[in-house]
Amino acid sequence: MNIILLGPPGAGKGTQARKLVDERGMIQLSTGDMLREAKTSGTEMGLKVAAIMDAGELVTDEIVIGLIEEKLQGDNGGGFIFDGFPRTLAQADALGDLLKRNGQTLDCVVEMQVDDNALVGRITGRYTCGSCGEGYHDVTKVPAVEGKCDNCGESNMQRRADDNEDSLRTRLMEYYKKTSPLIGYYYAKDDLKSVDGLAAIDDVAGSITAALNGGDIIGNG
Ligand code: AP5
Ligand code: MG
User: Fold this and answer.
1) Can you list the alpha helix ranges (DSSP code H) found in 78-180?
2) For a 10 Å CB count at each end of the chain, is N or C smaller?
3) Would you say residue 216 has pLDDT above 60?
């Protein structure tokens, strides 16, 4: 089963994708993570996108479609979770074409509905284990031992360069201008399920499971 997690910055796409990887053996394809990896490895592409990402703007369709195209050629295990991709109508069309070319299908698009006011607190409080990628939050999800990852035991917590109020404002604007039209796009294709992303993390996970199992959640079901 191949799915898209669609939602604004801080909606919880990465958090829920990691749960689906653990529970269903799916493969998370986060274009944000891929671009951050390119940034830290100092590749030509990484240098090109660094300033764009830090400012909260979208990198070009050509770059992200290229990244996804490469990954789709590998093993898809329990299915792909597209996290943060597609983000424009051109990317959505390209994904449809790539899946078709590989004989694959898109099975569900989960829209995570959240309130903008909640996003500021989520984003400015977020940090991640740089060793295993486990996500944390200053208030809502702290590790048992301060500074030490519950998952892998390493003390390598990191904060993203774009996790500040200025960049977040730009990221939100980019989302509403360029990404939110995808809600109508996938609704028209009858692929869309909407879940309440403001619920507790495990409750959101439960709604996503119900959506993937074909249940009615909120919205058009
Ligand atoms: P990307 O890395 O995709 O960032 P984003 O879309 O802004 O989303 P985030 O990763 O910030 O949020 P999330 O929804 O994953 O939330 P999370 O689970 O971490 O993209 C970064 C940049 O890369 C873009 O700005 C752009 O420049 C570029 N880029 C990437 N893809 C691109 C593309 N396709 N095209 C062009 N450019 C692209 O949760 C956030 C926090 O909230 C965490 O602390 C978490 O613990 C907490 N939390 C999560 N769920 C809950 C809950 N239910 N209740 C309480 N707290 C919760
Ligand atoms: Mg994310």
Assistant:
1) 89-101, 116-124, 165-174
2) C
3) no
Please state the pTM of the whole predicted model.
0.94
Cβ–ligand 1 contact at 205 (below 6 Å): no
The string of pLDDT tens digits covering residues 72-118 is: 987 777 899 999 999 999 999 999 999 999 999 999 999 999 999 89
Query: How far, in Å, from the CA of 116 to the mean position of ligand 1?
Result: 13
CA of 49, closest atom in ligand 1: 27
Catalytic annotation on 13? yes
Contacts of 158 (CB under 8 A, 6+ apart): 127, 128, 129, 130
Ligand 1 pocket, mutate which of 19, 59, 139 (most atoms under 8 A from CB): 59
Placement of tokens 């940090």 in the chain? 127
Instruction: Please answer whether residues 53 and 59 qualify as being in contact, where contact means their C-beta atoms are separated by less than 8 angstroms.
Output: yes
